[in-house]
Hints:
Shape: globular
CATH topology of the largest domain: Aspartate Aminotransferase, domain 2
Helix content: 40-55%
Number of strands: 14
Largest sheet: 7 strands, mixed
Order of helices and strands: HEEEHHEHEHEHEHEEEHHHHEHEEEH
Bound molecules: pyridoxal-5'-phosphate
Strand content: 15-25%
CATH superfamily of the largest domain: Type I PLP-dependent aspartate aminotransferase-like (Major domain)
Amino acid sequence: MNQASFEDGLRAELSRLAKAGLLRRLVTTSVGSGDSVVMDGKSVVDLSSNDYLGLSRHPLLKRAAMEAIDKYGVGARASRLMSGNFHLYDQLEEAIASLKGTEASLVFGSGYLCNLSVISGLVGPSHCIVMDKLCHASIVDGALLSRARIIRFPHNDLEYLEGILKRKRQDYKGVLIVAESLYSMDGDFAPVNELVALGRKYNALVMVDEAHALGVFGKRGEGLIAQDSQEKPDLIIGTFGKALGSYGAFCATSKVIKDFLINKARGLIYSTALPPGTLAANIEAVNLVAKLTDARQKVLEIADDFRDFVQGELCLATRGKSQIVPLILKEVSEVVALEAFLKEHHILAKAIRPPTVPKDSPRIRFSFCAHHGRDTLHLIKKVLREFFKKGQNS
Ligand SMILES: Cc1ncc(COP(=O)(O)O)c(C=O)c1O
């Protein structure tokens, strides 16, 4: 096949995606003031970011990053197993293990890389991975890469999960159960304690991704899995790219699993270590997050208020009880039209379409952050009232 005919095939697929309203494109963004960003030359209030505590621009994190750049330079120059393992890693991994109340932790380049590497490093073809149907793409991709048998259970359906464990546990050398403590597109929670109990009962490892809960939940921002909880999952994943404001991720776990992953996790072995500035910002964020009780309360209050509005006044479907509020509609064309209407009115909230979410529940995902004020909430409500009133009249 020559290049021209290969590209013809790519164009045909792109045009199919465009016709179905599923085409993705990159839009250049620059930082605006307050809770806004500038996109396509237009200032919009940003309800699409995961900067839940506003730490991405926090002066203490910026200063820590700049000081580390000054001292070490902008890059790590090598992988962690070569000469990229600056002592900042030890500091960060100790701080995380203490925040999560685990024996150890291991830092990776990003949440995507962490899930990919941890799952594929830990289990193989003689194992079975049993995961919630709504698990993030990075978990699915890690499972595929591992070549283990994959079984997905209906969202949060513990009875179904137990049925699988009862029937299948004996067929495999080991079983890994995977879930997220807070689901990123639905804003709802996993029954973590029950998952851990099932893991113990059927001698299966349990891994829980706290990507969206970290920073926002927990007395000290440790997430939904309490620092002092006796029965924790065997592996807890968290990322620095969301509430902690920067970049990178971790797996909080036992010392033995950490040592094993250092030997088997390909995303750690074969990838350049994180830049020193990023590590320093992450250390600052982990230390700071414990103190941000007011910000945690504020973000959850504003999200609660909005969720009540969606259900009560708009009579539309939503889910969960977190800072992530999905507004669920029936048709992809409706969510695409609503995203455009919001943007026209200076609000950035993204349409989430299949395959990221099921075909019958495309949605607009509103993610609230501590820097969003009541004025922002009033604006969103006003614009949504207008959109749905217009729909009724047309
Ligand atoms: C549950 C979950 N895990 C992992 C990731 C990936 O994290 P990162 O953005 O740090 O790659 C995401 C990102 O959206 C996520 O939602």
